[in-house]
Amino acid sequence: MSRVKFELPADDLTRATAFYREVFGWETQRLPFEYVLVDTDGEPVDPADADGGISPRTRFVQGPVLIIEVPDVDEVAGKVAAAGGELLNAKERVGEYGFSQYVKDSEGTVLCLWQSIADGTAAV
């Protein structure tokens, strides 16, 4: 079973963060790199259980992206390719939080595969 979160691209993280806090009352937490975690329920952000994030706009992330939490990014990326999808980048480590890889589904929709590092023992 997988959990689905979201990622919103922004040209200005500070401006976008203020927008979502002011308009929707979302709680936010800026990470030590260019990323902001968000919780949509008004509760303080728990980095291990955030609802989504705001990221810099990139060539992959031009519009909202679903983040699909998976047990093993490498395994699921292989399934994406086998099912007619496209791998957009190599798996990347995201600080001490986990691993991500952007893919396109069979219809061209960009998704982000996410593997959390629950206990710090996940393989690279």
From TrEMBL:
Cited InterPro entries: Anthracycline_SecMetBiosynth, Glyas_Bleomycin-R_OHBP_Dase, Glyoxy/Ble-like_N, VOC_core
Pfam families in alphabetical order: Ble-like_N (PF22677)
Record SUPFAM superfamilies: Glyoxalase/Bleomycin resistance protein/Dihydroxybiphenyl dioxygenase (SSF54593)
Residue ranges of domain VOC in the record: 2-116
Gene3D superfamilies: 2,3-Dihydroxybiphenyl 1,2-Dioxygenase, domain 1
Domain of life of the source: Bacteria
Cross-referenced PANTHER family: GLYOXALASE-RELATED (PTHR33993), VOC DOMAIN-CONTAINING PROTEIN (PTHR33993:SF2)
Protein's recorded name: VOC domain-containing protein
